Amino acid sequence: SDGIYFAPCNSSPATVVFRSNSERTNDPERLTLERRGLVCCPVLKLEDRVRLLNYQNNFIERIDALRNLPNLIFLDLYNNCIEEMSDELSFVPTLRVLMLGKNKIRMISNLDKLMKLDVLDLHSNRISKIQHLEELKDLRVLNLAGNEIS
């Protein structure tokens, strides 16, 4: 076992993720849940110190369950099944890097609260129009390669 445990959530269809104390103590700021077959973002218990969260290579359809992550600066959802940038992103104003390459996103949205965003990777999606980036004053890197922008 890698010290990461999954359990059903009583109050919703979501899954809850717990780490063993030793696993959390070992790397309190980083949580990697790549290639776990996840279809939704799990609720993360006792993970308020997490700064880097990796959900690469899953089947996640919606950005969710970010409310209990007050220190999150790096969110990686590369190669999932996300179709829209949900308003859940507004709950992580600390975010500096958002990796959403290789998804099914059609429109850039819900970034207005991410004032610290420095890197936004949206390559290989279905975006046809560049919009809703005006508020992102700190944005230095924007990757829109492989989209449907004309």
UniProtKB/TrEMBL annotation:
Source organism: Octactis speculum
Keyword rRNA processing in record: no
UniProt-recorded name of the protein: Leucine-rich repeat-containing protein 51
Keywords: Leucine-rich repeat, Repeat
InterPro entries with a match to the protein in the record: Cilia_flagella_integrity (IPR050576), Leu-rich_rpt (IPR001611), Leu-rich_rpt_4 (IPR025875), LRR_dom_sf (IPR032675)
SUPFAM superfamilies: Outer arm dynein light chain 1 (SSF52075)
Xref: Gene3D superfamilies: Ribonuclease Inhibitor
Organism domain of life: Eukaryota
